[in-house]
Design goal:
This protein is α/β, with parallel strands linked by helices. It contains 12 helices and 13 strands. It has 2 domains: 4-14 and 270-376, Aspartate Aminotransferase, domain 1; 19-266, Aspartate Aminotransferase, domain 2 (3-Layer(aba) Sandwich). The strands form 3 sheets. It has a 7-stranded mixed sheet, with helices on both faces. Strand 6, helix 7 and strand 7 form a beta-alpha-beta unit. The two termini are 24 Å apart.
């Protein structure tokens, strides 16, 4: 039985060429990290930051904090912000639990007020409702996903951030599902903070991600400890990114991410081909009788659907065990969006493609869904 991987919104596979070899080489080599070793070698974190800064069009690579994932970056932003008494945060029902759970925790412990805006049937927030909420609540912070991990619908980050900035709100963008597949340009778009991950559409290894922090944003460190430099200080250094990178770094994973970024820069994604494959799979599923969540462009290569007479978890098990198809079923860690998609409480089956998904993979997925539908009707 062949294996077809369509779960790239969870983590990408295959990774970019050379990622595995780079990680292995770093693990097997003598450990080195700037400021923590007695000899000189390549600055792994610095090289990765330089590549990320170019991708994000960020002038100062030092504004990029590296960490193990986007959740880590989001927590740095959300827990590190000094909330004023009675502070309000505006967010959306499309958010991942990496946003919703920290906000819930802060509402309980810091007594902030969180307003969660509804989304449409595609998973996007309405700009007019967004503006009304900003005017009504005068939030200190707004946080929103760039692209839904459930539907692939892309929000207009420039528009939403611009509305918030007019009311002097701090803006935090979750680019977990967008960086590497569509442009993310925080300084061009005047967005204060951007959380990102390296193991999805950047094609890097797990254990990579980070947070862009604009120069005007002042955060308190969430994790404190060793930095290898300025060790005489009782507190964390003020210098960014060291201020937010306590502890021994994951150099092998960072080196792997740098390798992926280098490869991607030399092998640009053909967005037209990617869009065509996504549309072919979505329309093919609908033609077979699947209830596909229709999403207009701009979108990422994520397709959510349900099947007649078959529970989503049963479909996922059949796809895996009978056809070797690796996908995702359920709520996808974004529980609130399903009320607006009409897919609560069970969620959806999600196919998410990558640049490595072939036409043969798509045909095979369609054949498998057709077989399941005929078997269960």
């Amino acid at each position: 039985m062949k294996t077809v991987y369509v779960n790239n919104a969870a983590t990408s596979w295959p990774k970019a060429p050379q990622v595995g070899a780079t990680v292995a080489s770093c693990v097997s080599g003598i450990p080195y990290h700037a400021g923590r070793s007695g000899f000189t070698a390549a600055d792994i974190a610095g090289e990765c930051r330089k590549l990320l800064a170019k991708l994000l069009a960020v002038k100062d690579k030092g504004r990029l904090v590296l960490g193990p994932n986007a959740t880590h970056g989001l927590n740095i932003a959300l827990h590190g912000l000094r909330f004023r008494p009675g502070a309000v945060v505006v967010t959306t029902a499309a958010e991942h639990n990496a946003v919703l759970r920290p906000l819930h925790y802060l509402a309980k412990t810091k007594y902030i007020t969180v307003h969660i805006l509804p989304v449409d049937k595609q998973g996007r927030v309405d700009p007019e409702e967004w503006e009304q909420a900003i005017i009504q609540h005068s939030p200190q912070l707004v946080v929103f996903t760039h692209a839904s991990n459930v539907t692939g619908a892309v929000n207009d980050a420039v528009l939403l951030a611009g509305i918030a900035k007019k009311r002097r709100a701090i803006t935090l963008l979750d680019a977990s599902q967008s960086l590497g597949i569509i442009p993310v340009l925080p300084e061009v778009w005047s967005i204060d903070m951007v959380a990102f991950t390296g193991h999805k559409y950047l094609l890097g290894p797990p254990g990579t991600g980070g947070l862009y922090i604009a120069p005007q944003i002042d955060l308190e460190p969430v994790w404190v400890g060793g930095t290898g430099v300025q060790s005489d200080l009782a507190e964390m250094p003020q210098t960014i990114p060291i201020r937010f990178e306590a502890g021994t770094p994951n150099d092998p994973a960072t080196a792997g991410l740098a390798a992926a970024l280098t490869w991607s820069a030399n092998h640009l994604l053909d967005s037209g081909v990617m869009a065509d494959k996504t549309e072919r799979l979505a329309s093919g599923l609908a033609a077979l009788g699947a209830k596909v969540i229709e999403v207009t462009t701009p979108r990422t290569p994520v397709i959510s659907f349900t099947l007649p007479s078959c529970l989503v978890e049963d479909a996922g098990e059949l796809l895996h065990k009978s056809f070797g198809i690796v996908c995702r079923t359920g709520l996808h860690c974004a529980p609130l969006i399903h009320k607006y998609l009409g897919t609560a409480p069970s969620g959806t089956i999600r196919f998410s493609l990558s640049r490595f998904t072939t036409d043969e993979d798509i045909d095979y997925c369609l054949q498998a869904i057709e077989a399941i539908i005929h078997e269960t009707i």
